[in-house]
Amino acid sequence: MRRVRAASAFLLLCLTLLTGCGPLSINEQAIVLAVSLDPDRAGWRWTFMFPNPTLTPSSEASIHTSQEFSVLSVGGATFGDAVDAVQSAIDRKVFLGLCQVVVLNPRLPAEMVRRLLTTLVRTSAFPHRAWVTFGEPTASELLTTTMPEEAAPTVYLAAYFKCRDCHSPASEVRIWEAWDSLVLPSRTAVLPLASRAQGRVMVQRVAWLGPNGIQVLTPSETQGWAILANRLGQGSVSVFSGAERFTVRRVSLHSQVIPQSNGEIAVNVLGTGTIDEGGPYTASQVALVQQRVADELASSCMAALHAMQRNRVDPLAVATRRSWTDGGFPAPDVPAHVAVHVQFRVVRAGYLY
Amino acid sequence: MGLLGAMASLGDAIDAQLANLLQPTHDGDSAHAHARIHTAFGDSPDVVRRPVSSNHGVAMTVYYIDGLVSPQLVDTAVVGPLSMDRTGRAIDGVVQVGEVKRSSRWQTILHHLTMGYTAVFTANDVEVLLCDTSKLPQRSVGRPETEATIVGPQEAFTEPLGTQMGQLRRTLPDQALRFSPVAIGTQRCAIAYLTNVANPQFVEMMRERLSRIEAVGILNATMVGSLIRDHPRSIFPTVRYTEHVSFVKWQLLQGRVAVLTDGDPFAIIAPATFRDFYSTPMDYSSGWYDASFVRIVRVVGFVISVLLPSLYIVFSSVDQQLVPYQLLLIVMGSHTGLPFSPFVEAVIMIFMIEVIREAALRMPKPLAGALGTMGAIVVGTAIVKSGLVSNQVIVIITVTALSLFSVPAYEMVGAVRLFDIALIIAGAVFGLFGVVATGFTVSALLLSMSSFGVPYLAPIVPPHWDNWRDTWVRLPYGQIEARPTALRPLNLNWLHLAGSGVRRPGRRPNR
Question: Span A235-249, mean pLDDT?
């Protein structure tokens, strides 16, 4: 009986201590679905996106798209200040636990972004699994852009990033992943850059958050980074062979970045793809296409590597890996000499190959 | 002196009467017998006294209780032969009934009168003839109301113990079938078991537990079951009740023991483990695939009925970050403007459903149908429009209520319902941790329980892998030849398929 009492007391103690207290009713909470940060004349502009609290499956059809979400912009030197400012502007308790996306302006100082990522990871009430991205023309504008296929209460960018195999390059990153990339000073975090163009939100480039600031890559450099980081997914490459344009689809690549003992790095890329359209093609035509694709891929890789050298960033963690073998504190440099070898094979071309 | 004399004579009369009443046996005096019977039954009009005089001039008095006897039988088989007898034989041979006993003990005589016997008192004879003329009011054999099956045997027990034994004997014509009578006060019970299967320990334990009961009157089988079961304070039942004759037959064949109670068509089956409350008679009269699928549905129903409302409360009120945000926002949208929290709404809905259920039980069948319709309209529409409860809570609690009734044994429904309410409260107060802690606590309690020495969670814990063929699913009969190991039957196999080529799955044929 004494053991039963002791076990009961222990259980009750655990229940009391571990479960927290004072959870608020669902009707007393303002759920934050997305946060954006832009530079402002007076400092920083924080924008919080809330869902329409009256949204139900039956009311969805009658609510206008512009009323599905509401945004609230406040100024604040830190994230905590911004939350306090939002809290004082609404009659509900701000609930950050379901935030899906954090959108950052690429013109922000790199240090500010680093500090924010660290703050968000250290804020226990904030979900570390939320996606983080750069957004242009401004983060808040991107946040308030609604897509026709977006069904409230789904946040478009969250749904976009969640579909991992849908896009090429696969540049999505969660807050904890970005923060983890910044733990070592030599490392570089890679964040997607979402742009608004012609009324749509597109993610075709990435930006590096390195020791020297934020560098937005070109589409070619982005493709090169995706190849080197094995994040191209199932993309496609268009090349010209003579006057004819070939689109090689279902491109599947596997790359290896190997630090050499002489300080150089070697990049080996193996890939396959298919040409679905046209045909029949001769073997020499296919061989030429293969060569063109390999050249294109090598060119992209070189562009990315040159960007890494130019900006003295290390998104592939080459320097970190070298430090494991050579010892010493890694320098965020990519060696001056790199060699890229690409082997590409078209496994199916047209209907006769 | 006159007054004193009168008082003295009154005292003598009282003493004589008391002496007569205190006598344990009949003394052969008809007047004393009448006084004793009058004292026992009072002025009850159903106690009939008929003086009979035989052709030889022997004065006899016949007593019986109207309503318990067949008047025709009394007339033609007892009174008629006695009054017309010219042979002068002993009256035992004159009466023409199935069972005749002799006794001079008043306790025996009075008890037999209440059982529908006719007592024949012969002048100056200390022994009384007890003739079985009972014809109890009895309904015809019907279909099981609580365990209806679509295919297979459809016979339910009736109230009289004799009929129950007859039904079982006819269904299981095996000489190993034994009925061991046990009397609890005036209540007659019988332990049914198969001598070549059931572990004698169970039979002895059952007999010992029944014989320990000293009660003036027992109302029904549930009362008997409550008095003999293990863990009488637990909400989880440890004996099973069934009115299905073929199900009792199957349980006896598996090595269990049944207790039949006079006056209650429900038989008590023991030992009963947690798994037994999720099997039905139809599991053994439908195809193995159908029975297996339905069993899995029942398990899912159990999980839903136990966890769905509590998890809803947890995710909508306490640990909101654990639920997909789309769902939470829809829940929030449906709660906009409503005054109560999801917990209070769930309590309101549970209360409403219990009230409707209870009312439907008490009402006549035609009205119960109307009440169900009215309840559905009230619960489904009006309560939402009135702003008391949100749509989600209605869906959750209704699905839970339906899942509850996927439990085949009614006695388990109440336990699961209470467990469910405990989890709701734990979830509302302590969140997910409360639900997990309560679940583990109840699991630990279940693990510590047993029924007649059999672990309550057998054959799951401790695992008897062979018995799993008839636990979560029901494999084809050729593959479940073994009886439940936990019952420790005298003979482990109930089926032998010699030369049929049926082999157990996963076992290679002998080379």
Answer: 82
Q: Are A247 and A275 in contact (CB under 8 A)?
A: yes
Mean pLDDT of all residues in A270-280: 82
Query: What is the rounded CA–CA span in Å between residue B436 and residue B434?
Result: 5
Asked if A127 lies within 8 A of B316 by C-beta distance, the reply is no
Say yes or no for a CB contact (<8 Å) between B335 and A98. no
Residue ranges of alpha helices (H) inside chain A are: 2-18, 79-89, 110-122, 139-144, 156-162, 175-181, 219-228, 283-311, 318-326
Among residues B435, B462, B455, B445, which one has the least CA distance to residue B234?
Answer: B445
Whole-angstrom distance, CA of residue B499 vs CA of residue A196: 77
Domains of chain A: 26-216 (no CATH), 220-353 (3.30.300.210)
Chain A residue at shortest CA distance from B328:
A26
For the segment A25-32, the average pLDDT, to the nearest whole number, is 84
Q: Is B316 on the interface with A (CB under 8 A)?
A: yes
CA-based nearest residue in chain B for residue A100? B325
> What's the sign of the alpha-carbon dihedral A321, A326, A330, A334?
negative
Nearest residue to A300 (alpha-carbon basis) of A232, A199, A246: A232
Percent of chain A with pLDDT over 90: 34
Statement: residue A232 has pLDDT above 90: no
- Find out whether A172 and A193 touch, Cβ atoms under 8 Å: no
Residue A161 has pLDDT above 60, yes or no: yes
Q: For the residues B360-367, what does the mean pLDDT come to? A: 77
Q: What's the distance, Cα to Cα, between the start and end of chain B in Å?
A: 111
As a whole number, mean pLDDT of residues A310-327 equals 76
> For residues A24 and B401, which has the higher predicted lDDT (pLDDT)?
B401
Identify the pLDDT of residue B169: 92
Tell me the pairing of strands A131-136 and A189-197: parallel
Selected residue with higher pLDDT from A52 and A254: A254
pLDDT at res. A121: 94
Closest residue in B to A57 (Cα) is B330
Interface check A54 vs B, CB under 8 A: yes
Q: A interface mutation test: which of B325, B343, B447 has the most A CBs within 10 A?
A: B325
Report chain B residues whose CB lies below 8 A from the CB of A95: 320
Beta strands in A128-280 (DSSP E): 131-136, 189-197, 200-210, 213-216, 235-241, 244-259, 265-275
Mean pLDDT of A44-53: 91
Q: What integer is the mean pLDDT of B116-138?
A: 86
Shortest distance, CA A27 to any CA of chain B (angstroms): 6
HSE of B426, CA atoms in CB hemisphere, 13 A: 25
Q: What is this structure's pTM?
A: 0.75
Average pLDDT of the segment spanning B477-487:
89
Nearest alpha carbon to residue B96 among B116, B112, B76, B71: B76
From residue A2, how far is each of A7, A15, B241 by CA, in Å? 9, 20, 36
Residue A29 contacts B where some CB pair is shorter than 8 Å? yes
Select the residue of B325, B333, B341 nearest A100 (Cβ to Cβ). B325
Q: Inter-chain contact A15–B336, Cβ cutoff 8 Å?
A: no
Residues A216 and A191: their CA atoms lie apart, in Å, by: 9
Distance from CA of A176 to the nearest CA of B (A): 17
Q: How far apart are CA A101 and CA B158, in angstroms?
A: 68
Q: Residue A22: what pLDDT?
A: 57
Q: Hey, which residues 80-109 in chain A have their CB within 8 Å of chain B?
A: 95, 97-98, 100
CB B234 within 8 A of CB B465: no
| CB proximity A1 to B under 8 Å | no
- Contact: B328, A31; criterion CB under 8 Å: yes
Chain A residues near residue B437 by CB distance under 8 angstroms = 11, 14-15
CA distance B331 to chain A (A): 8
Residue A155 DSSP SS3: coil
What is the gyration radius of the CA atoms in chain B, in angstroms? 31
